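Lab notes, practical 5.
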Amino acid sequence: MPSYTVTVFSKWSKTRLDQTPLIPQIHLMVKSTHSFSCSICGASHKKWTGRCDACGEWNSVQEQEPLAAGPGTKTLGATKGCKITLSDLQTEDKPLLRAKCGMDELDRVLGGGLVPASAILVGGDPGIGKSTLLLQATAKFALAGKKAIYVSGEEAASQIRMRAQRLDLSHSPVQVASESNLRDILTTLDTERPDLVVIDSIQTMWIDHIDSAPGSVSQVRAVAHELTTFAKRKGIAVILVGHVTKEGQIAGPRIVEHMVDTVLYFEGERGHQFRILRAVKNRFGPADEIGVFEMTGSGLKEVLNPSALFLSDREKPAPGSVVFAGVEGTRPLLIEIQALVAQSSLANARRAVVGWDSQRLSMILAVLESRCGVSFSGMDVYLNIAGGMRISEPAADLAVAAALISARQGTSLPAHLVTFGEISLSGGLRPISQAEARLKEAKKLGFRDAFAPSRMKLASTSGMNVKKVEDVGAFIANCFGDLQA
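Output from the prediction step:
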């Protein structure tokens, strides 16, 4: 309901004293509480506009109504009318109770399992396997004796059953519902009191007291708020599936990611069978942890040794192929970095990157040309992270530089060599973290030699022959000799 502001204006005579005053004129000025926001970035606007000033998208500004505020209360803290002090709280040194999902890789990303009364948001590209992953996890959770409900607003119950039969999960006691009205869903959950609820997806849910279409900013915000509050109040773990935009971000207002306890992204290339489940926010465990899955005809299978699987298709040593000893979260991974350098017939040479930051590639090329005299002008450069992985840590700089020079010179590096190190703008190599874990993983897979920054202190080399170099020039001299620009 819009609020009304009443303003009274009265006019009095200015000439004759015996003139009676005129009847007061009452004007009703309606002050609308409606607002407008962008459905892409969530930016607020005072009025409707065809283009969002924040993100530049066209036809994305929609009208929304505010959430209805409940009656005020004076209750603060655990006791009515009493505030609490941090020093007065009593805690017990007990481990956080978690429930295993039945999938070790998912439990690893969550920090050891599902925490009761937690809200988890899972995002990913369409068709990447979000629903398949969560249906498998929910079914195994139910087979372990827990009560689980899978609510879908996109598929009918018969379609979910067909997918469960294909995944050989039709014998699981998981409860399935096809509904998008949040009021009916919360009423059922309050009666059933399950241990785990999966909402697929949050963009299809709607609340009847908000006058906007499902998937709008106001609907997504209200649905996320209601489900998160319900999870905290009833002690139920809730998993929300979120669609992503073309930029790869979860669609809807950014505040949804702040409401929930954990945010997971399901990544992967459709041309590869590998899928990466990555935690970008976790209040109950380490962030940036990953779980590796393999997409097969019978569903997603866990990959317990990702390094061996990523290197299983690696052929004999070839120019431009280098093995990088990386770390994703708490897990060491060996990843193959591939580079191709060829003469360009274009005025502006190509720079194509898959799985790495293109801006960082430009920086590495500038350092090699400026500090080491290795020029890539007039050459097309292609860089690829094998297996569909995405790397963001700067420790891959040295491996990328080695792959570029190897491809440029047409020289293969030894098959038993791994590299890691961050390159500074001066050409020096900066130390990195968890070097011992990287070397231990490389030793386990049969690698014998490694190049590492000289300023890095190693407590143990795990039986590896570690060659420490001070800068990129020393590394090039050790591996390739003197190069001509």
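Observations recorded by the TA: The chain has a mean pLDDT of 84. The radius of gyration is 29 Å.
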